[in-house]
Sequence to fold (208 residues):
Amino acid sequence: MISLDTAITFFPFALSLALLPGPDNIFVLTQSLIYGRISGIFATLGLATGIMFHTSAVAFGVATILETSQFAFSALKYIGAIYLLYLAFKAFRAGNTNLENKTGPKDTKITLYKRGLIMNITNPKVAIFFLAFLPQFVDPNKGAILSQFYQLGILMFIATILVFTSIALSASFVGKWLFNSKDAMLYLNRFACLIFISLAAKLAFAQK
Fold:
């Protein structure tokens, strides 16, 4: 079982990562802006459900590595750290680029849920990010590894629901701010850069 300290450390990171501009929260935002808050909430539920899929994939694949191989553990953490630094570089280079307002025809609520789920599950960047992000918060000395992964996944699920639902409910204000303000995007991307660097450093110095 993850410790309270781990949960307290992990959850703010999860909230921050959910806030970073990306295809998932932009999808929620655009659906809410055009078709209403309920549409955004159903898209949110689908996207958040996909998180548990990625949690399972990482948990069953990484648990064995963490338990059996010091070399594999070290290789995994350094690969993850390099990937996080790459994300930091991309966020820094993104600067003040405006978001594209991509819209489409209105879908039923169930269709939005399914689309959100499929978008999340089939996004290889999400899978790679989970592989780099979750293992650094798992400690083999603190009980069953699979259980720890699912506890972290649930916390990530909750953070995603909180952030994406807030985006859906405040779509008018958030959309106007994000789509019209270059400074807003600059600040968010700089914030993303700092988050990824701090995660990379934590992962690089993690001990088995």
